[in-house]
């Protein structure tokens, strides 16, 4: 492959991610929520409670990034952190009622961001499948 910037897949992924997150960030600002906070709430809204280790693995975040983020979300009243009764070494994270309510409010943000792209639904599904396969191959 030619080493010019225009031929670098990593550069296209970087720019795509940067631009999408910029759009999310603008929409999340009114909730005092970062993109990372948003995806954390998405992860928790479908599988909770989760240990910090499980959550970090799902989001590809280390505990050094996740712990301050969870503290901020807890301060806002969106999540709770509690020791597991089965194993006190594990800290379980769950959405609060306020967190679920906010999660519902935020539900259309992804669709709004997608609508700005020139992709149709089938192209978006195909891209999602390819990127999922790509990420899975990197995670091995």
From TrEMBL:
Origin: domain of life: Bacteria
Localization in the cell: Cytoplasm
Biological process, per Gene Ontology: response to stress
PROSITE patterns in alphabetical order: HTH_MARR_2
Keyword DNA-binding in record: yes
A Gene Ontology cellular-component term: cytoplasm
Domain HTH marR-type span(s) in chain numbering: 6-136
Primary localisation category: cytoplasm
Keywords assigned by UniProt, alphabetized: Cytoplasm, DNA-binding, Transcription, Transcription regulation
GO molecular function, one term: DNA-binding transcription factor activity
Protein's name according to its UniProt entry: MarR family transcriptional regulator
Organism: Candidatus Kurthia intestinigallinarum
């Amino acid at each position: 492959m030619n080493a010019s910037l225009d031929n670098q897949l990593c550069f296209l992924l970087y720019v795509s991610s940067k631009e999408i997150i910029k759009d999310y960030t603008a929409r999340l600002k009114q909730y005092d929520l970062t993109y990372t906070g948003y995806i954390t709430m998405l992860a928790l809204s479908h599988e909770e409670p989760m240990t910090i280790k499980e959550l970090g693995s799902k989001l590809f975040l280390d505990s050094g990034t996740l712990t301050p983020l969870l503290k901020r979300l807890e301060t806002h009243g969106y999540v709770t952190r509690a020791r597991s009764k089965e194993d006190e070494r594990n800290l379980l994270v769950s959405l609060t009622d306020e967190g679920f309510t906010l999660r519902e409010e935020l539900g259309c943000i992804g669709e709004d961001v997608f609508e700005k792209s020139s992709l149709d639904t089938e192209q978006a599904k195909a891209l999602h499948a390819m990127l999922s396969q790509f990420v899975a191959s990197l995670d091995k």
